[in-house]
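Exam revision sheet. Question 4 asks you to relate a sequence to its structure. Input first:
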Amino acid sequence: MSRAIALALLLAGCAHATPPPVATAPKSARLWFGGDVNLGPGGHHALDGLVPLVHGLGVGVVNLEGAVATQLPTGPGLKLWNAPEALSELSQLDARAVGIANNHAADTGSDGLEKTASAVRGAGFLPFGGPAGATVLTLGAHKIALTAHDLEHGVPPHLIDDLRVARAQGDTLVATFHVTGPASYLPRPELKEAVEIALAAGAKIVIAHGSHAIGPLERRGDAVIAWGLGNVCFACDCTKESDAILVALDLDASPIGVQVLPIDAGLNSAPARPAKDPAGLFDLLEAIGTPKLTRAGDRASLP
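Answer key, C-alpha coordinates:
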Protein backbone atom coordinates (compact mmCIF):
# COMPACT_ATOMS: atom_id res chain seq x y z
CA MET A 1 0.00 0.00 0.00
CA SER A 2 1.44 3.38 -0.97
CA ARG A 3 1.91 6.04 1.68
CA ALA A 4 -0.51 8.34 -0.13
CA ILE A 5 -3.26 5.69 -0.23
CA ALA A 6 -2.69 4.70 3.39
CA LEU A 7 -2.81 8.33 4.49
CA ALA A 8 -6.01 8.93 2.55
CA LEU A 9 -7.67 5.87 4.11
CA LEU A 10 -6.64 6.89 7.59
CA LEU A 11 -7.87 10.40 7.16
CA ALA A 12 -11.13 8.98 5.90
CA GLY A 13 -11.77 6.80 8.72
CA CYS A 14 29.88 -12.66 18.86
CA ALA A 15 32.97 -14.73 19.37
CA HIS A 16 34.98 -13.49 16.39
CA ALA A 17 33.46 -10.05 16.24
CA THR A 18 35.66 -7.01 16.62
CA PRO A 19 34.48 -5.23 19.76
CA PRO A 20 33.43 -1.62 19.27
CA PRO A 21 35.78 1.01 20.66
CA VAL A 22 35.37 1.91 24.32
CA ALA A 23 33.59 5.25 24.61
CA THR A 24 33.70 7.73 27.44
CA ALA A 25 30.71 7.84 29.76
CA PRO A 26 27.99 10.18 28.50
CA LYS A 27 27.58 13.35 30.54
CA SER A 28 23.87 13.64 29.80
CA ALA A 29 20.95 11.25 29.65
CA ARG A 30 20.29 11.31 25.93
CA LEU A 31 19.54 8.22 23.91
CA TRP A 32 17.73 7.17 20.76
CA PHE A 33 15.73 4.11 19.76
CA GLY A 34 15.55 2.35 16.41
CA GLY A 35 13.33 -0.53 15.35
CA ASP A 36 14.25 -3.81 13.70
CA VAL A 37 17.86 -4.39 12.65
CA ASN A 38 18.75 -7.48 10.65
CA LEU A 39 22.33 -7.56 9.39
CA GLY A 40 22.57 -11.02 7.84
CA PRO A 41 26.18 -11.65 6.79
CA GLY A 42 27.04 -7.97 7.21
CA GLY A 43 29.38 -6.05 4.96
CA HIS A 44 26.60 -4.17 3.14
CA HIS A 45 27.20 -0.85 4.94
CA ALA A 46 23.49 -0.85 5.74
CA LEU A 47 23.90 1.61 8.60
CA ASP A 48 26.47 4.04 7.18
CA GLY A 49 23.87 6.52 5.98
CA LEU A 50 22.44 7.01 9.46
CA VAL A 51 25.71 8.09 11.09
CA PRO A 52 25.27 11.85 10.41
CA LEU A 53 21.62 11.68 11.48
CA VAL A 54 22.28 10.20 14.91
CA HIS A 55 25.34 12.32 15.64
CA GLY A 56 24.79 14.15 18.89
CA LEU A 57 21.65 12.21 19.84
CA GLY A 58 23.34 10.16 22.55
CA VAL A 59 23.63 6.38 22.65
CA GLY A 60 21.51 4.02 20.58
CA VAL A 61 19.19 1.15 21.45
CA VAL A 62 17.86 -1.20 18.75
CA ASN A 63 16.09 -4.53 18.33
CA LEU A 64 18.34 -7.17 16.77
CA GLU A 65 15.96 -9.16 14.60
CA GLY A 66 17.06 -12.79 14.40
CA ALA A 67 19.69 -14.86 16.13
CA VAL A 68 23.44 -14.44 15.96
CA ALA A 69 24.82 -17.37 13.97
CA THR A 70 27.71 -18.22 11.66
CA GLN A 71 25.39 -19.05 8.75
CA LEU A 72 21.77 -18.74 7.67
CA PRO A 73 19.65 -21.25 9.63
CA THR A 74 17.88 -23.96 7.65
CA GLY A 75 14.37 -25.30 8.00
CA PRO A 76 10.83 -24.34 6.99
CA GLY A 77 9.63 -20.77 7.13
CA LEU A 78 11.52 -17.51 7.11
CA LYS A 79 14.77 -17.66 9.07
CA LEU A 80 16.75 -14.58 10.06
CA TRP A 81 20.34 -14.37 11.26
CA ASN A 82 23.11 -11.93 12.06
CA ALA A 83 26.73 -12.96 11.54
CA PRO A 84 28.93 -12.41 14.62
CA GLU A 85 31.28 -10.16 12.66
CA ALA A 86 28.36 -8.00 11.52
CA LEU A 87 27.55 -6.86 15.07
CA SER A 88 30.45 -4.41 15.08
CA GLU A 89 28.60 -2.38 12.42
CA LEU A 90 26.29 -1.15 15.20
CA SER A 91 29.18 0.60 16.91
CA GLN A 92 29.35 3.36 14.29
CA LEU A 93 25.92 4.49 15.51
CA ASP A 94 27.12 4.43 19.12
CA ALA A 95 24.58 1.71 19.87
CA ARG A 96 25.05 0.48 23.43
CA ALA A 97 22.09 -1.81 24.15
CA VAL A 98 20.55 -4.47 21.92
CA GLY A 99 17.16 -6.05 22.49
CA ILE A 100 17.05 -9.75 21.58
CA ALA A 101 13.44 -10.70 22.38
CA ASN A 102 11.61 -11.18 19.08
CA ASN A 103 9.86 -13.85 17.03
CA HIS A 104 13.05 -14.76 15.13
CA ALA A 105 15.38 -14.94 18.13
CA ALA A 106 15.17 -18.74 18.27
CA ASP A 107 15.54 -19.39 14.54
CA THR A 108 18.77 -21.30 15.21
CA GLY A 109 17.19 -23.56 17.81
CA SER A 110 16.20 -23.60 21.45
CA ASP A 111 19.64 -22.42 22.58
CA GLY A 112 19.72 -19.60 20.06
CA LEU A 113 18.73 -16.92 22.57
CA GLU A 114 21.49 -17.82 25.00
CA LYS A 115 24.07 -17.88 22.20
CA THR A 116 22.82 -14.58 20.85
CA ALA A 117 23.02 -12.94 24.27
CA SER A 118 26.57 -14.23 24.68
CA ALA A 119 27.61 -13.04 21.23
CA VAL A 120 26.12 -9.58 21.75
CA ARG A 121 27.87 -9.31 25.10
CA GLY A 122 31.15 -10.48 23.55
CA ALA A 123 30.88 -7.79 20.88
CA GLY A 124 30.75 -5.12 23.57
CA PHE A 125 27.01 -4.39 23.71
CA LEU A 126 24.43 -4.85 26.47
CA PRO A 127 21.85 -7.48 25.52
CA PHE A 128 18.41 -7.34 27.09
CA GLY A 129 15.31 -9.48 26.82
CA GLY A 130 14.92 -13.26 26.86
CA PRO A 131 17.58 -15.01 28.94
CA ALA A 132 19.51 -11.74 29.25
CA GLY A 133 16.68 -10.24 31.30
CA ALA A 134 16.72 -6.51 31.98
CA THR A 135 19.85 -4.41 31.64
CA VAL A 136 20.81 -1.08 33.17
CA LEU A 137 22.25 1.68 31.02
CA THR A 138 23.96 4.47 32.98
CA LEU A 139 23.80 7.86 31.27
CA GLY A 140 24.95 10.86 33.24
CA ALA A 141 23.19 10.77 36.57
CA HIS A 142 20.48 8.44 35.28
CA LYS A 143 20.29 4.67 35.56
CA ILE A 144 17.96 3.46 32.84
CA ALA A 145 16.46 -0.02 33.17
CA LEU A 146 15.72 -1.57 29.77
CA THR A 147 13.37 -4.51 29.21
CA ALA A 148 12.34 -6.37 26.07
CA HIS A 149 9.40 -8.75 25.66
CA ASP A 150 8.15 -10.59 22.59
CA LEU A 151 4.34 -10.56 22.22
CA GLU A 152 4.13 -13.17 19.44
CA HIS A 153 2.15 -15.49 21.72
CA GLY A 154 0.35 -12.75 23.60
CA VAL A 155 1.21 -10.89 26.78
CA PRO A 156 3.58 -12.97 28.95
CA PRO A 157 1.93 -13.91 32.27
CA HIS A 158 5.04 -12.78 34.15
CA LEU A 159 5.22 -9.35 32.46
CA ILE A 160 4.15 -7.26 35.46
CA ASP A 161 6.63 -9.03 37.73
CA ASP A 162 9.48 -8.61 35.22
CA LEU A 163 8.78 -4.92 34.88
CA ARG A 164 8.52 -4.27 38.61
CA VAL A 165 11.84 -6.02 39.22
CA ALA A 166 13.47 -4.00 36.44
CA ARG A 167 11.95 -0.75 37.71
CA ALA A 168 13.69 -1.30 41.05
CA GLN A 169 17.07 -1.49 39.31
CA GLY A 170 17.07 1.98 37.77
CA ASP A 171 15.76 5.52 37.97
CA THR A 172 13.80 5.22 34.71
CA LEU A 173 12.11 2.13 33.29
CA VAL A 174 12.03 1.73 29.51
CA ALA A 175 9.79 -1.13 28.36
CA THR A 176 10.14 -2.33 24.78
CA PHE A 177 7.77 -4.74 23.03
CA HIS A 178 8.03 -6.72 19.81
CA VAL A 179 4.81 -7.56 18.00
CA THR A 180 4.11 -10.01 15.18
CA GLY A 181 1.43 -9.60 12.57
CA PRO A 182 0.54 -7.78 9.37
CA ALA A 183 2.02 -4.32 8.99
CA SER A 184 -0.42 -1.84 10.49
CA TYR A 185 -0.32 1.74 11.70
CA LEU A 186 -2.70 0.79 14.50
CA PRO A 187 -1.49 -1.09 17.61
CA ARG A 188 -2.48 -4.72 18.06
CA PRO A 189 -4.65 -5.72 21.06
CA GLU A 190 -1.81 -7.53 22.84
CA LEU A 191 0.39 -4.45 22.49
CA LYS A 192 -2.30 -2.22 23.98
CA GLU A 193 -2.58 -4.58 26.95
CA ALA A 194 1.19 -4.77 27.42
CA VAL A 195 1.53 -0.98 27.32
CA GLU A 196 -1.09 -0.54 30.05
CA ILE A 197 0.77 -3.07 32.20
CA ALA A 198 4.06 -1.27 31.58
CA LEU A 199 2.62 2.10 32.58
CA ALA A 200 1.11 0.57 35.71
CA ALA A 201 4.55 -0.84 36.56
CA GLY A 202 6.06 2.64 36.37
CA ALA A 203 7.52 2.73 32.86
CA LYS A 204 8.27 6.27 31.69
CA ILE A 205 9.11 5.23 28.13
CA VAL A 206 7.42 2.50 26.09
CA ILE A 207 8.78 1.52 22.67
CA ALA A 208 7.18 -0.90 20.20
CA HIS A 209 8.49 -2.50 17.02
CA GLY A 210 8.06 -5.69 15.05
CA SER A 211 5.08 -5.07 12.78
CA HIS A 212 7.47 -3.26 10.39
CA ALA A 213 5.12 -0.25 10.30
CA ILE A 214 5.34 3.04 12.14
CA GLY A 215 2.77 3.94 14.77
CA PRO A 216 1.69 7.12 16.53
CA LEU A 217 3.54 8.76 19.39
CA GLU A 218 1.89 10.12 22.49
CA ARG A 219 2.43 11.37 25.99
CA ARG A 220 0.45 9.68 28.75
CA GLY A 221 0.95 11.82 31.82
CA ASP A 222 4.73 12.05 32.20
CA ALA A 223 5.30 8.90 30.13
CA VAL A 224 6.14 8.66 26.42
CA ILE A 225 4.78 5.94 24.14
CA ALA A 226 6.06 5.15 20.63
CA TRP A 227 3.58 2.66 19.18
CA GLY A 228 5.77 1.58 16.27
CA LEU A 229 9.23 2.46 14.96
CA GLY A 230 9.25 0.39 11.78
CA ASN A 231 12.41 -1.11 10.31
CA VAL A 232 15.98 0.13 10.37
CA CYS A 233 17.56 -2.39 8.01
CA PHE A 234 16.91 -5.90 6.73
CA ALA A 235 19.45 -8.05 4.90
CA CYS A 236 16.70 -10.13 3.30
CA ASP A 237 13.92 -9.36 0.84
CA CYS A 238 11.30 -10.10 3.47
CA THR A 239 9.60 -6.78 4.22
CA LYS A 240 8.48 -3.93 2.01
CA GLU A 241 7.90 -1.34 4.74
CA SER A 242 10.50 1.39 4.23
CA ASP A 243 8.79 4.19 6.22
CA ALA A 244 10.43 4.27 9.64
CA ILE A 245 11.46 6.57 12.46
CA LEU A 246 14.13 6.92 15.08
CA VAL A 247 13.02 8.43 18.39
CA ALA A 248 15.55 10.49 20.36
CA LEU A 249 14.91 11.17 24.04
CA ASP A 250 16.37 13.69 26.48
CA LEU A 251 15.80 12.45 30.03
CA ASP A 252 17.36 15.58 31.51
CA ALA A 253 14.42 17.61 30.21
CA SER A 254 11.07 17.93 31.98
CA PRO A 255 8.91 16.62 30.47
CA ILE A 256 11.09 14.13 28.63
CA GLY A 257 12.29 15.67 25.38
CA VAL A 258 11.20 13.70 22.32
CA GLN A 259 12.57 14.14 18.80
CA VAL A 260 11.30 12.21 15.80
CA LEU A 261 13.70 11.49 12.93
CA PRO A 262 12.19 9.89 9.81
CA ILE A 263 14.30 7.40 7.90
CA ASP A 264 14.01 5.26 4.80
CA ALA A 265 14.79 1.76 6.03
CA GLY A 266 17.51 -0.22 4.28
CA LEU A 267 15.73 -3.24 2.80
CA ASN A 268 17.21 -6.25 1.02
CA SER A 269 20.72 -5.13 2.04
CA ALA A 270 20.25 -1.58 0.73
CA PRO A 271 21.54 1.16 3.04
CA ALA A 272 19.23 2.94 5.46
CA ARG A 273 19.14 6.71 4.99
CA PRO A 274 17.45 9.83 6.30
CA ALA A 275 13.98 10.00 4.78
CA LYS A 276 13.69 11.60 1.36
CA ASP A 277 10.30 12.97 2.36
CA PRO A 278 10.34 13.71 6.11
CA ALA A 279 7.34 16.04 5.82
CA GLY A 280 5.27 13.22 4.35
CA LEU A 281 6.13 11.00 7.30
CA PHE A 282 5.28 13.76 9.76
CA ASP A 283 1.91 14.13 8.01
CA LEU A 284 1.35 10.40 8.30
CA LEU A 285 2.27 10.32 11.99
CA GLU A 286 -0.17 13.12 12.73
CA ALA A 287 -2.89 11.42 10.66
CA ILE A 288 -2.67 8.25 12.76
CA GLY A 289 -2.94 10.04 16.08
CA THR A 290 0.35 11.77 16.92
CA PRO A 291 -0.20 15.28 18.31
CA LYS A 292 0.80 18.09 15.96
CA LEU A 293 4.57 18.02 15.77
CA THR A 294 6.90 20.99 15.94
CA ARG A 295 8.85 20.56 12.72
CA ALA A 296 12.39 21.65 11.93
CA GLY A 297 13.51 20.29 8.58
CA ASP A 298 14.33 16.59 8.80
CA ARG A 299 13.24 16.21 12.42
CA ALA A 300 10.38 17.20 14.66
CA SER A 301 9.59 17.46 18.37
CA LEU A 302 6.66 15.96 20.24
CA PRO A 303 4.81 18.67 22.20
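Marking note for examiners. The two ends are 29 Å apart (CA to CA).
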